[in-house]
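User: Run a structure prediction on this.
Assistant: Running it now.
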Amino acid sequence: MNPLVTPGIGLLFWQVVTFLLVLFLLSKFAWKPIMAALREREANIDHALSMAEKAKLEMQSLKADNERLLNEARAERERILKEATEAANHLVEGARAKANEEGQRMIENARLSIENEKKAALTEVKNLAATLSIDIAEKLIKRELQDEQAQRALVQSYLQEANLG
């Protein structure tokens, strides 16, 4: 038979001794550094995963903060727009009230002016009528009193009216 297929006891013995010797040398010199490197790599991977998780949580926190700030900015914008609209409405109402007040004052002044001019015109008409009446009466009396007979009749009529009244 072929010696490779069925090894001899001596060969088997030296293979075991060599394996144990390599195992001992590897465990003494190489096993600890390999295990330390694996532990270090595992720690680095765990650290990287925890940092990634922290970054993810921080990003979520920043996103929530950004959303909150955006909502606050929107609310502030709405408040400012509302205040501006109210201020504009207040100004418009104030201007409208002032214009109405000014219009009423002008109407009242015009009414008073018209009333005063009307009174002045009536007074002037009355004065003119009185002057005309006096002029007419004067002319009539002059004409009637030129005649002595007419004067006596006039005095008699005044006396009769005075006694009766």
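Helices lie at 9-145, 148-164.
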